[in-house]
Amino acid sequence: MTITNNGLGPDGKAVVVDLTDGRYEGEQFARAATDTAQVYAVPGRVEQPVAYDAVILAGFGGPEGQDDVIPFLRNVTRGRGIPDERLEEVAHHYRHFGGVSPINQQNRDLQAALQAEVDRRGLGLPVYWGNRNWSPYLPEALQQAFDDGHRTILGLATSAYSSFSSCRQYREDFARALDETGLWGQVRIDKVAQFFDAPGFVAPFVTGVVDALRTFLNDGVDLTTTRVLFATHSIPTADAERSGPRDVDWGEGGAYAAQHLAVSEVIMRKALAELRDEYPALPDVDWQLVYQSRSGPPSQPWLEPDINDAIADHAASGATAIVIVPVGFVSDHMEVMWDLDTEALETCEEHGLRAVRVPTPGVDPVYVSGLVDLIEERLKGTPSNERVRETTLGPWYDVCRPGCCENVRAGFKPAISGLQP
Q1: Which of 83, 130, 343, 407 would you label with 176, given CA atoms 20 to 30 Å apart?
Q2: 170 is an annotated ligand-binding site residue
Q3: pTM of whole model > 0.85?
Q4: Is residue 335 a known part of a binding site?
């Protein structure tokens, strides 16, 4: 059977999707996907040019003053019935920094840097910015793009990995923005695929690890007792198990853990190879993937080990120095400033460990250029086998597969740029 999609194709006409296996029916599917029938020709990839006329940068959002903190946290936890007294337990992280999260300014800077690179390449795309949890909100950005005459939009989320909160929730955010603006059927929104192994994302971390280890070497630190900890946000184990397509056995931690492990291995290998040009006798350096920022009840399993527990364990086994790599983050927002720069570094100090935290990509020119490369891939319909990625897991899916990254607590909601559910 054939269903007319509720999005618009590059020619301005409704997209028709051939549902050859008959699994998806009616409006539920139409509201869940805005990409073309190419998802069946090349599963999950769109390998034809699409005439996008704007980009929307989608962020998490953050408070920008003390009065914003509790309203912001209410937005983050909407629908969970968490009282303000409980929210205040988290609020002190923000209040420590004057109630201001750096994430909004990071995204202003990234928006400007992306626009400059897009303009330099002559792509002719305006870059808008909207958030999930704080102003400017995504519906506002979408409405502005529509008012400016744009109808075929490419979404770029500030998150590199697959899980509910880092991928599918952004797809739901775009769908909700279409609902709130009443623009279903008038605007097409697709989404840049998860970019955890894109060269522009990987390279700044390689540089950071090289710089940290070189500094240790120059200061006489023994690298055989140095540990590199790749840190990312912990998520509930049940959510992790549902991350990524369901027809693949990703192992413990689902696609979320598999992606982090794969890219961490690449970063470590590249960093050591670069250093061995200067230090041919450089020993191997032990590394580990660790987690941070868990917030669920003690009874709910989350991905482990926690970074602070890992630091203590390494100290007990003879480590003398720690390199912390915030591989799960694209910029220095609160989980980096508090959980790593405050708590984790304090734990290192308590155990007498020398420690350094390497930078996030932020607005590194290599990272910004790499993001625009991803935009160009979709503009040109670059074939999958011509898309450069650093792990064997990529290139990731332009169109998310059925059942990808389910929200265990709330189930599936309408989401763009993917197949239902």
Answers
A1: 83
A2: yes
A3: yes
A4: yes
